[in-house]
């Protein structure tokens, strides 16, 4: 069991700085915000390629426009902070604890796109990059564990079962509450520890 105090966490200031840089870029170029980047990194590390599939270029290519609006110094800062974030996420996945999704586990948000939807969309973007490998073994169980994340992402809303969940706020919240455990189950399944 991992000592949770040993997880290499970003400081509050680092998280805030990364969030600000990503939010500014998302407003400029409709790229991934902090939650989508976090979800995407989590998906890459959870998936069958694991840490070997987690390279900065893949992250940049998927998260940002071809020409992001960062200055050279900001780009270096984002690169460093995202690298630290990936180490923190990897440590959490290795800990075996329920995964700490960095937002409330609900889609009920009267203002903007709920942060959980953004996180789940990022995670599913990583799945869709390598979908065949995700489903190569134990397809039904993988689909079962992915279902709450698929639902929260909003990418599959045309499917009738998703619409049925959307009509029931309690059911929606219960579905979203399954995400932290589902991430751990998927990680253990993909990396031979289950």
UniProtKB/TrEMBL annotation:
Gene3D superfamilies: YgfB uncharacterised protein family UPF0149, PF03695. The lineage of its organism: Bacteria, Pseudomonadati, Pseudomonadota, Gammaproteobacteria, Oceanospirillales. It comes from Thalassolituus maritimus. This is YecA family protein. SUPFAM superfamilies: YgfB-like.
